[in-house]
Specification:
mainly alpha, 0% strand, elongated, Ycf3/AcsC/BcsC/TPR_MFPF
């Protein structure tokens, strides 16, 4: 899913907006070499001053970056602090579910996504529940949840690709073809999506469409993709 930074309320003026963006970019660059700073506390453990909403957004952006870099255990530690201050924050809870999934804590992740589902937080809840089912090879359950997520976000190619792959695992090739054709059109540069589309196309009587996608690939990828797609087994 696409992540966007929330601008502070007083950032509407161009110069202020540029300064806000510059500060956020600097913070994200700094995250490459250090972890997010802890919230200031006194010796007794009391927080000295609550962070602003803008600071919280930077904090969440850094945590998201840690997840993306495979530092999900550290991300969980910082999320414990953040959610201790903001227990109902939807973005924080969503990041926690993702971090739990990435660290193999499937039951805990499922509990987070079930809670989000009760709050009708879509597509995050359904997509997360789909990932949980996929982790335990329940592809029917995964497909049902990804379908819900795709209904809530019909142009999200990450969701569409996961939904299409679940359908491939269920050998529902014509349906997978339709889903992955849409994903390929929306994200034509994604090699993973194109590979899944070729698998669906070859198994649903769309040889010409598969060959057209392969022909548009870099030469180094064509034979490898076709060979993989022809030998793929659910």
């Amino acid at each position: 899913m696409v992540d966007t930074a929330i601008m502070p309320r007083n950032a509407g003026h161009p110069s202020r907006r540029r300064r806000a963006l510059a500060g956020l970019c600097a913070a994200l660059a700094l995250a490459a070499c250090q972890t997010p700073p802890a919230v200031p506390r006194t010796a007794s453990g009391e927080q000295t001053m609550p962070p602003t909403r803008q600071e919280d957004q930077v904090f969440l952006a850094l945590i998201r970056g840690m997840n993306d870099k495979g530092q999900s255990q550290a991300a969980l530690a910082f999320l414990d602090d953040y959610l201790g201050r903001n227990p109902n924050d939807i973005e924080g809870l969503t990041l926690r579910g993702d971090a739990l999934l990435r660290t193999g804590q499937i039951d805990a992740a499922e509990a987070v996504y079930v809670d989000l589902d009760k709050r009708r937080v879509q597509p995050a809840a359904a997509f997360g529940l789909g990932q949980v089912r996929a982790k335990v090879n329940d592809w029917a359950g995964a497909s049902a949840q990804f379908a819900r997520a795709a209904q809530a976000a019909p142009t999200d190619t990450r969701i569409l690709n996961n939904y299409g792959f679940a359908l491939l695992k269920l050998q529902q090739y014509p349906k997978a073809y339709d889903v992955l054709a849409r994903a390929t059109q929306l994200s034509p540069d994604s090699q993973q999506i194109k590979t899944n589309f070729v698998i669906a196309a070859l198994n649903s009587g769309h040889e010409r469409e598969a060959q057209a996608v392969i022909a548009a690939m870099p030469a180094a990828e064509r034979d490898k993709t076709l060979s993989f797609a022809r030998s793929w087994k659910p």
